[in-house]
Amino acid sequence: MQLVRKGDPRAFETVYDRHGGAAFSLAYRMVGNRTVAEDVVQEAFLSIWRSRLRYESERGSVRSWVLGIVHHRTIDALRRNLVHDRRRTSAEGLEERQEAPERTDVEVARREEARTVRAALETLPDQQTKVIELAYFGGFTHTQIAEMLDMPVGTVKGRMRLGLEKLRRQLAGEYGGELAL
Amino acid sequence: MNEHERHQEDVGAYLLGALEPAEQAAFEGHMAGCHECRAEVERLRVAADALPRSVEPFTPPPALKASLMAVVREDAAGARERPPLLERLGLDRLFSLRPALALAVSLVALAVGIGLGAGLSGNGDGHRVVAGEIDRSRIPEATATLTLPRNQDGPAQLRVTGMPAPKPGQVYEIWLKRGDQLQPGPLFNVDSSGKGAGAIPDDLEGVSTVLVTRERTGGAQMPSEAPIISARI
Predict the structure, then answer these.
(1) What is the DSSP string of B89-131?
(2) Which residues of B touch A112 (CB under 8 A)?
(3) Handedness of CA A90, A33, A74, A181 (dihedral sign)
(4) Tens digit of pLDDT for each residue in B81-108?
(5) Which of B1, B14, B16 is most worth mutating to test chain A (most A CB atoms within 10 A of its CB)?
(6) Are B163 and B172 in contact (CB under 8 A)?
């Protein structure tokens, strides 16, 4: 990251090579449309390049920082309604998905990591999983979720927090008390 | 329910990106001065950070990388050729200090016992402390200090007091002037007493001045106003 901070495009290319797949997968999971996901990822990585001095290693991994920015950018796109419109009118479906082939040890490890996190999510009560998924992957605010589910805002916020707390404990147990995430 | 208890309820929604923009700004403002809420956010962040890792992996098209890197390389090449950004934005005038600003800076400098242009002191740890120049027409009560660690062995800290809370949807943004370029830095907020701090990445090589502006939540790529604080290293 030191070279990226100094504006070295080759170092930045390495960051993209390492995290571009996860970034695209997240954006695609959220918007359900390859073209929109590509737009969002390009916008997010340009933002990362242009604000590279904001990265603080002591506050987390590069991967978490990158995915956090992709998440925020995708939420922005969802809330601008562009994606909802395009998602509704898109002819794309499951048939156009291109799952990443398991070619390397890193990809195999990431598939395993994904399975582990999904398994931890499945241990949460349904109502906690629902508010977390609507917020994180759907890009809805807590007030929108409260309206959708016809429940008080305080209940939605409480379930979000309890769900994250339980997920944290599940993952800590899975990783023997040391989260490798 | 007091202010802290009210904000404590927002921790989960904040980590999931589910607060409204004004609520998010208010929460970040509270968190800047609340150790308990900061600790709770950090404790639960690991769970929120795990969520994107649950996603089934898909391969991005090669054209995406090609298109992205073309822009990045053009950016990098342009950065070496563009005229000074401060000049293009008219911000260079700040460094020549307008008379009113210069007077205000002088008064502040005198009040804290330092000379204008030499607002630099040290302490026993070998850290250097630079006094920030304040635009008193916009933030009349503010003070700012920039603490530079010895041998750049850690992040520099910009600490402010007497700052007004940013408007809803706004945040304070730090900028680093390196050569003739102005690069966006960390964002920070202030608590209800007007205190706040921003940690600046440890690589300050070539940085001559640290600046602060008010920008929309999430930060900007270019400053939208003349700096309200500037600290010359």
Answers:
(1) HTTHHHHT--HHHHHHHHHHHHHTT--TT--EEE-TTS-EEEE
(2) none
(3) positive
(4) 544 445 544 455 444 444 444 444 434 4
(5) B16
(6) yes
CA B15, chain centre distance (Å): 20
Amino acid (one-letter) located at A129: T
Q: What 3-state class would DSSP assign to A127? A: helix
Please judge whether B43 and A168 are an interchain contact, meaning their C-beta atoms are less than 8 angstroms apart.
yes
Quote ipTM for the complex.
0.83
Class of domain A103-181: mainly alpha
Biggest distance spanned by C-alpha atoms of chain B: 61
Give all domains of chain B, ordered by start, each with its CATH number.
3-54 (1.10.10.1320), 84-232 (no CATH)
Q: Which of B139, B149, B134 is nearest to B202 (CA)?
A: B149
The predicted structure's pLDDT at residue A90: 39
Q: Which of A50, A162, A165 sits opposite B221 (nearest CB)?
A: A50
Report the CATH fold assignment for A1-99.
Rna Polymerase Sigma Factor; Chain: A (1.10.1740)
What single string gives the DSSP state of each residue in A134-156? HHHTT---HHHHHHHHT--HHHH
Tokens encoding A56: 């603080």
Residue A144 to residues A80, A148, A149, B20, Cα–Cα distance (Å):
15, 6, 9, 10
Scanning the structure block, which residue is given the tokens 């990809």?
A107
If you search the block for the tokens 């208890």, which residue do you land on?
A: B5
Answering whether pTM is above 0.80, one says no
Two structure tokens written together for B124? 């026993």
Contacts of B149 in chain A (CB under 8 A): none
Query: Which chain B residue's Cα is nearest to A70?
Result: B52
d(CA B204, CA B149): 11
